[in-house]
Amino acid sequence: xxKYCLVILAVILFSCKGxxxxxxxxxxxCVFDSSKINDSFLKNxxxxxxxxxxxDIKQGSAILKDGSVLIVKxxxxxxxxxxxxxxxxxxxxxxxxxxxxxxLSISSIIDKEAFSRIEKNIDKGKLSExxxxxxxxxxxxxxxxxxxxxxETPNGYLYSVFYYKx
Length: 166
Fold this sequence. Notes:
Layout: H1 2-15, H2 40-43, E1 48-54, E2 59-64, E3 69-76, E4 80-88, H3 92-107, H4 112-121, E5 132-137, E6 145-153, E7 156-165
């Protein structure tokens, strides 16, 4: 049943086009150039079975080879940022056993500096027994916001990585 839910969710995600979130043209006040953000990080990942990239809003939706669903959004102007969500249908025991490897695995598709930061700090994270299983804050001067979360949802477990850097 969960596999069917993921397939339906993927079809919905791939068919939606959010015009309300269109990215503005490159602004002269921007430090980073958003026109250089593309789907190469998805295209080159060995984890991904299929994906769709919306260049207008710099967002990709993917189905991973293990059947989980990934949504990733990048942006650039004054800050460079990323939001990554991964929905898995694993049971709690599997999440408890494999969460570090799963976070490292999905983080491998983001930029090398952020991945290195996650890799160095992943052991600081401890799972709780609350609905939010993990809330790991890796923020510092270079990354004013950098979070890794794992949360239980009605459809499975949601892994989230969010950061922006100056």
